[in-house]
Design a protein that fits this description.
Number of strands: 0
Distance between the termini: 40 Å
Order of helices and strands: HHH
Number of helices: 3
Radius of gyration: 14 Å
Structural class: mainly alpha
Length: 97
């Protein structure tokens, strides 16, 4: 299980390194591709009952989605990225928005 955890972490790092950029400087297409890969790895970790790694990958995916939101909104001042829950689903505010 620990070996799987390490290999999944290395895979995410390799993907980012292969793209040659940090997430903040990636295009929206590159971010979407990376998010899909991280989500796939997260689901694989959860299927293997490696919930700690799945949670780490979920958190990483949330960060990437925030970067994607910033990239698509043009980094508008005062913009607040939507919040995401487990599985990358967008959370609603209590008043239903």
């Amino acid at each position: 299980a620990v070996r799987d955890l390490i290999s999944i972490s290395k895979d995410v790092a390799k993907t980012e390194k292969k793209l040659g950029k940090d997430p903040e400087s990636m295009s929206s297409e590159e971010l979407e591709e990376l998010i899909a890969k991280v989500e796939k790895q997260m689901r694989a970790a959860a299927a293997e009952l490696n919930f700690e790694m799945a949670a780490e990958l979920r958190d990483r995916m949330i960060e990437l989605k925030k970067n994607l939101d910033d990239a698509t909104s043009g980094g508008t001042k005062g913009y607040r990225a939507p919040r995401y829950g487990a599985g990358g689903k967008r959370l609603r505010k209590r008043d239903g928005r």
